[in-house]
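Changelog-adjacent note: as of this version, every example in the card shows the full chain rather than a window. The one below runs 260 residues end to end.
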Amino acid sequence: AAGLLGLGLDPGDRVLLRMGNRADFPFVFFGAIAAGLVAVPTSAQLTADEAAGLLADSGARAVALDPDLDLAVPQGISVITSDDVDRWVAGGERAEHDLGDPDRPAFITYTSGTTGRPKGVVHAHRSAWGRRPMYRGWYGLDEGDVMVHAGALNWTYTLGTGLMDPWTAGATALIPATSVTPDQLPLLMKRHDATIFAAAPGVFRKFVTPGKTLDLPKLRHGLTAGEKLSATIDAHWREATGTPLFEPYGMSECSPFLSA
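Full-length structure tokens:
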């Protein structure tokens, strides 16, 4: 937070994150929110032109840029590198948390744009508090749990379920780096005593095959979202782990029922 404010940013300014799954991401994301800035996480899979479009649309005054990703940053917009983040963390300079109205914007996520131009969705500071019913209603999440989430950090499913919620609840968040392949996930879960595993159905499909058994003694269950879970994947997961998969209804699923 102190490092970001040292760039001359003012409360309410937007900081765009163009980063993959790396430790810099949560440092910048939460640092921006603590400083009263607005974090704008974006997909690392966007092309440079697509990312430039979101940069212009968001009006961000700073960009946290992954060294592996391209982006032409206009003059006057600060660029934050991994070296900057390392220096800020090592320096230990502190900033007072910018506390205020819980309805203030905390971060903005963009829709995928599958039905048109991507749209920025503003999440208030209170959204972290408003997520609490899912701890019991979907996750079964408690203090001391180890949540492994195999998604991209910019995705609200990963950012919320995999990072914000475990930390809020006093659990451990473990998010694999971009270099981790799906077939390596079971070993990762076993080494870190994962109690809950979350992913999209397509990820489960890649490492849960018929007749396969996974040795995950601490695992209680899995969470799935992002696309429809097939009965086949569900059955293969139960056979492999002996645990259930829990699938939620999100806003996309609820809206037709509410409208009807």
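Structural remarks: The CA atoms of residues 214 and 241 lie 6 Å apart.
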